[in-house]
Amino acid sequence: MEAKGSLRKNARKEKESHPDLTGKWTDQTGQQYWLSAWRNVDQKTGDVYFSLKLGNPVEERGDAPMKPVPAHSAAKANAYQPMPDDDIPF
Does the residue 54 lie in any domain? Predict the structure, then answer.
């Protein structure tokens, strides 16, 4: 299998720091990774170039990149924490 990928215009770009293009890249083993690109212009020559970032592996359950959650934060978020009776608003 050959490595390949594609990029498309980022329809969800909201900030200047967000990538101009996003997509996926597949390595020789078939594992997919998120791929991002930013359009830049060389200040001296005016030439256009793209900065690339190969991101985390694509998860099977979703199609949108997610920020990794540190293990200690995930454990806290999923832990059951009972609410004292006097904190119930009704």
Answer: yes
Residue pLDDT, tens place only, 12-53: 999 999 999 999 999 999 999 999 999 999 999 999 999 999
- Strands (DSSP E) contained in the chain are 4-9, 21-26, 32-41, 48-57
23 CB-contact burial (10 Å; exposed 0-12 / middle 13-18 / buried 19+)? middle
Closest to 23 (Cα-Cα) out of 65, 51, 78: 65
The average confidence (pLDDT) of the chain is 81
List the domain range (segments joined by +) for residue 55.
1-59
Total domains in the chain come to 1
Quick check: is 21 in a domain? yes
